[in-house]
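User: Um, any thoughts?
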Amino acid sequence: MSRPLVVDTNIVLDLWVFADDAARPLREALLRSEFSWWATSAMRDELARVLHYPRIAPRLAFYKLQPPHVLDHFDRHATLVEPPPRAPLRCSDPDDQKFIDLAVARQALLLSKDRAVLSMTKRLTAWSVQAQPALPAFTPAP
């Protein structure tokens, strides 16, 4: 059985645009289907919007990528679900609340580099959510 996972937009960019070495273990784990990556349409919409930001366009061009290519990766690996009810925890950044809500609803590992999300690590643990900026190079199966 694969582990539940919620991935924020910056980590998705690390995976499929920036070719960040820290994202390599996650990329490999996704290819091995070690996780069930849960997402909502609002998360996909945010990614689609961010892919058109002026600071992202040069990276896409450098890697000869187009926004649809990145969205194809998202669509291939993430399973879209209905947005869950709001979690009892509130994130200081309202744009990140959707990631918190889904991670709490699914009791998922939440990957995020966002300071507002990571500042909630202890509170999230009480709701069976582990928040961290990346997967370690070796992630043993549960």
